[in-house]
Amino acid sequence: MIIYLTVGDQPSGVFNSQVIDFVNFLAASTSQKVKLVAFISIRGFFSNRRQIQKKCPNAFVLPMLPRIKNWEKNKYLFFASLKLLGLKPSLIMGRNVLATLIALDAKQKGLTNKVLFDGRGAISAEWKEYRVVEDSFLEENILHWEQKAVMEADWRIAVSNKLVEFWNTSFHYKPGNETVIPCTLDQSYERIELSDTQVQAAKERIGLAPDKITLVYSGSTAGWQSGSLLRLLLEELLENQTTLQVLFLSEETATIRSLAAKYPGRIKSRLLPPNEVASFLCGCDYGLLVREQTITNQVAAPVKFAEYLACGLKVLISPNLGDYSELVEKETLGYLSTALPPQLEKISLTDKTRIQQFALQHFIKQNYLPDYLEIIKQTT
What we know:
This protein has 380 residues and is an alpha/beta fold. It contains 16 helices and 13 strands. It has a 7-stranded parallel beta sheet, sandwiched between helices. Helix 3 crosses helix 4 and helix 5 (123-130) runs antiparallel to helix 6.
């Protein structure tokens, strides 16, 4: 049996695509029994547990102790649960640092044979650069904890080659016992049909002008999304090209309201459930992925990149964003935000289809099944 362990991740679009969808895929695609064990906040616990178990019926959802600084004490509930359920997994996959440290303690107690560190980013850098936690004890220890997770796990998954380089530079990790697998698409993005009719219908549903070129920002307004840089880029583009319009698929912010006032009729915003986003992205031409030059962003693999491509969009991307900035230039998937053409052009259906096919070749879980099977072979 394989356990996929998460600590502190709440139900969300990302949780659905990167955790639940992954666990369900691995269980359906291999001979292994795979079980999700998720520690979630006690705030809204029962409602969130229902959400998780609705999509992943055999998930075991446990309440975290209050305050993230008490994360380590959750291991005792985890150990007791394994014994109570009579489970001895051959492998525990820890999503990120804290889950992996709990898994390593389980291995030390003989409760599992192997531990895999599923590295989603440079967590110590993220906590420092974006003040993810407001606790001096956590801030002082996260670098050491991340090093322990990287160096003591039996195998590692990294979302980018840049993340492996970060491990090498920061922890003297010698590459060789890891597999690079980018953040992959939710299965709903694998079934998108592109046609002129569908593209036009998507524009009409949101009220976009059919004759204009549409830029779209889809996602969180969290600090690392670099809102000030995005605004500067959009103001430059909107001033220089009157045929552009912008769609924000996110919570409305002061920045969005300000842009809407400055460029009347050219800014639209709408917050959608995750399962409706793709149908609106299809009506756009360019996806916006503008990030600051931080370590967090330099090792990242935003799933939004894959989602944009799966909907046939070209991407306007910052330099040095994980492995993707170089990929955009190499495969003609868009433009660097620092090297834009004088005028952006509408994306033809032929080009949309080419881009979509690239996404389906590189960002669906099924294409990484041989890698997952090799990981299981190495660790069970």
